[in-house]
Amino acid sequence: MIEIRWHGRGGQGAKTAALLLADAAFETGMYVQGFPEYGPERMGAPITAYNRLDDQPIRIHSNIYEPDIVVVVDQTLVGPVDVTSGLKKGGAVIVNTDLSPAEVRGMFKGCTGAIHAIDARDISLRSMGRNLPNTPLLAAVVKVAGIMGEDEFLKNMEGSFAHKFAAKPEVIKGNMLAIREAWRGAVLI
Amino acid sequence: MSRNDRMSGNEAVATAIRQINPDVIAAFPITPSTEIPQYISSFKANGLIDTEFVAVESEHSAMSACIGASAAGARAMTATSSAGMALMYELLYVAASDRLPIVMAAVNRALSGPININADHSDSMGARDSGWIQIYSENAQEAYDNMLMAHRIAEHPDVMLPVMVCQDGFITSHAVENIVIEDDGPVRGFIGSYSPEKYLLNPAESLGVGPYSVSVYYMEIKRQQFEAMNSARAVIAGVSEDFAAMTGRDYGMIEKYRMEGAELAVIVMGSAAGTGKAAVDRLRGSGVKAGLVKLRVFRPFPDAEIAEAMGGVRALGIMDRCDGFSACGGPLGAEARGALYGRAEGIKTVNYVYGLGGRDMRVEDFEALFAELARVRDGAESLRCRYHGVRE
Amino acid sequence: MSATRRNLMEGMTPDAGWRELSPAAQVFGEGNSLFFNTGEWRTESPAWDAERCRQCLLCFPVCPDSSIPVAGGKRGGFDMEHCKGCGVCARVCPFGAISMTEHGREAAE
Predict the structure, then answer these.
(1) pTM of the model
(2) Of these four, A174, B136, B222, B276, which has the most CB atoms within 10 Å of its CB?
(3) Chain B 217-246, CB below 8 Å of chain C: which residues?
(4) Which domain holds residue B276?
């Protein structure tokens, strides 16, 4: 089982990203869970969302305290929130950041997991014209977690975007560009 | 035929309601309600159902409208949660005593205060004596399946009682999970159409529903309700059997999980049952004789089934996601102990109040409970009731 | 009134067991108030003086028990099986054509 914990801020779409990841993994035939930790809805307040992905049915219904992967949607959360709390040995962090590798390493001093950085904001702005970090981050998680290969993922997402954006097909191209760039842009530092 | 899908518990129940296509849904569509009425209004707007959707001004009115619609002869449903259900309490009793087979999608959430929106069973436990059949679901699949069975149970001539299908707020209502969705055709065939024997809009026969009943009559009418609730046991079993024949998914009043040879066991309802099963698997793996009993049906109460399930259990944890403030345990604790009395005596029991207001219940929490139950089995003193997962 | 006492009130008697009473005390058919002799509740009785009565018909609409029968535009004598003796008709009569008598006082007067 792969357990993933997302850290974001209210309004940034961390919950949606967790649900998109559940969708993508479901398409590969996996058993999935995607759920947010619910509280009052407050724009900007730190929020958490979770994924469990397995090839067996999943019965556990609790939050995740020892994740395999932590995704940080907003780098300003590092510090105020103990994002790497409980990270499993051999686990990974994926952080959306525009800082240099040295700065990112400094941010996660003491973290034993592999740190993957991606500038999801920049990718999003360039490919879609708006800051929608979810889509690039989703690609990074799928890659780092090894849920599927690049070709399968691209094919998979093309189908899902075609369905999701049936009413506005003009945005499909930008979304596809974003995930293609993100696949390459997510780097181990 | 069926298809694999993934959806939240709310969407799963809404999908069942779409397939049921009831005559009337009356619901208060905003907080503290759920996404369910929102899905239903979009189904209605998109022409997927021809249900009359009544967006009422409160849950009190929602249940009143359901009572009126059901008495008139319609298949009536509602969906609610938390304080919304509490606002319905008065009418829940009316629906049950008037023997109206209304079906409710309930999403279990805490009652204030302190103000809280998260999962626990306080809302439906407050309605446990209202005369409604109560079915609890472990996950989205069960919430969907139980909803598909609800009308068959409610509308059975031996029953004619309202049914609430419960699932845990947020934990399953807002969590996306894998689910098997049955095709519309077989589902509709399974549920069938509703043709009540007596109804207000029947031009051929006049009828009065809900009369004043003086003391000379009131108790006999309550005795009828007792009979209906008791008859529901066999009806639930029969409907569940038919459902298993259609889907392969088999449900009893309770589910026994690894109870063969179990010396330590817990009784639990709702989403925590799944987490508990994972704990039982871990413990069995290390040689601990642990087992779990999940209550699917709380009303009628499966007293004989619980006693029968005990087998060789020596220490039992009874898990309440609600404190009844009797100062001696929660409602499930009291009733489960009552079920054992005279049937399976000598079992040491601890009643745990857990998970209030969305307090998480982890696999590790169950492991700690089982460790305590092992000590109790071996003679350690224990409180009859205690809070689990609370800071001391 | 098509209903008969039998099919309206079947089983609905104070000695009927729970199996015999209708489910949820549902009442089948209409007009069963006819079979409740509320006249038994009366402690005062109205008397109608047909000589004084001008047939203005102010009395019958105020009767809560429909105990003043009207036929052919004229009222008749009281339906004493259902009149509860409330006296509202006597109050509204402008001509003093209705008088109330307390039970037990008849002999004295």
Answers:
(1) 0.93
(2) B276
(3) 217, 220-221, 223-224, 227
(4) 254-387
